[in-house]
What does this fold into?
Amino acid sequence: MGRRLLLRFMLAAVRILKTISVRCANARPRTPRDYLNFTVHNLLKASRLSETIVDGDMVLDIGSGDGHTLRELMLFRKIRPVGVEITVERNPHSSTRVVCHGSALPFVDKAFDVTLICYVLHHLPEDQAKAFILEAVRVARKKILLLEDSMVDFCVFYRLRNLFHRLEGDWEYGSESNAYRTPGGQEMFLTYDQWNRLLLALPGVYGVSVESLERISRYAHHTLIRVDTAPETANSGSATATTDLM
Ligand SMILES: C[S@@+](CC[C@H](N)C(=O)[O-])C[C@H]1O[C@@H](n2cnc3c(N)ncnc32)[C@H](O)[C@@H]1O
It folds into this structure.
């Protein structure tokens, strides 16, 4: 008994000493370790997104917020990232962020390989959401990837959650930018079928696939929607450099 106690004590002590020494050795990390700030489910989502992206792709994130999706993607792919936001309040230090309205992008046609719109469209009125998607189609050579709050059907608890999320968005984005326009109600929390119909009716959309991310995400409503913006995307090379975009 005495020996086991002594062994436990010695193990605890040696582990503390090991932790102190490794922290000192890593006090000045030689490579950035951004992933330490990321959640597992966001990294899993980024890994899923990265399956549609290849090294060298120019990737635009519309409504990029603090830019975390682009940073997470960069752990998996060597992308050239650009984010756009309606307000400078969000991510003021990003060097890859452009401040503009998502429905009037200051980029030439097909300037990007892939365009992302992550958890933005359900915060917009339908006409503006469609304008966002049309702009995303215009600037994307290969694909648009949407992350959305979507389900096969929204149950009563989800309708409640959507109501609270609507209020949260209105208060937060409305206080940050006068250009922000709310949908007013919950009508842009679309089901899988509704997203399919809305997207396939838009010009320049060649295909849509909707995938639930429930298995790798924190909540059941996290959904990945892949939109083809070209009939033929295989071996299409890469797009123009950042400086030639505007
Ligand atoms: C729920 S946040 C999502 C942020 C980020 N995409 C993410 O996944 O964490 C919605 C974002 O859309 C931005 N947004 C809202 N209206 C916009 C507009 N008209 N043009 C560009 N961005 C807009 C907001 O400022 C906010 O950062």
User: Anything to note?
Assistant: Residues 234-244 have pLDDT under 50 and may be disordered. The radius of gyration is 22 Å.
